[in-house]
Specification:
The protein is of the alpha+beta class. The protein has 2 domains: 1-28; 40-130, Kinase associated domain 1, KA1 (TATA-Binding Protein). The protein contains 4 helices and 5 strands. It has helices at residues 2-24, 35-38, 55-65, 112-130, and strands spanning 45-46, 69-74, 77-84, 87-96, 101-106. Strand 3 (77-84) and strand 4 form a beta hairpin. It is elongated, with a radius of gyration of 24 Å. It comes from Sulfurimonas lithotrophica.
């Protein structure tokens, strides 16, 4: 009888231990970086959560003020283009509203430095709107 009780207790305890371990697991890595941030590529722009405007509104305003044109591509993407003489710079921007970030996919002839003014303008616009100006 005692041996049977121990077997039942052990069978019931094992799933509880695994369940407790899963519930107590932290969503952060050991480096303190959110798991959600790890799924986005390098160069992703993360914005302050205090800004209540949609990412698309922020990008459209920033682009307008920095000489970029925006074309809606999909519900969560836009194409940004800037013409400078004979050169056209382009990037596809993908919005992640929940994580408040924007991924940039540059056109084949576009470098990071070519779109840095757009990135800076987006950051400035987001900061301006979050501070209530």
């Amino acid at each position: 009888m005692k041996k049977g009780f121990m077997s039942v207790a052990l069978i019931l305890a094992v799933p509880f231990v695994f369940l407790t371990g899963c519930i107590g697991a932290s969503p952060n890595t050991s480096a303190g970086i959110s798991v959600e941030k790890e799924k986005h590529p390098e160069g992703t722009l993360y914005l302050d959560n205090s800004n209540k405007n949609s990412l698309e509104e922020i990008v459209e305003s920033a682009a307008k003020n920095s000489g970029w044109s925006i074309t809606k591509f999909k519900s969560d993407r836009v194409i940004a283009e800037k013409i400078d003489g004979d050169t056209t710079y382009s990037a596809t921007l993908k919005f992640f509203e929940r994580e408040r970030c924007i991924e940039f996919e540059k056109g084949s002839e576009t470098s990071d430095s070519d779109i840095s003014d757009l990135r800076d303008a987006i950051e400035d616009e987001a900061e301006k709107n979050s501070s209530g100006h």
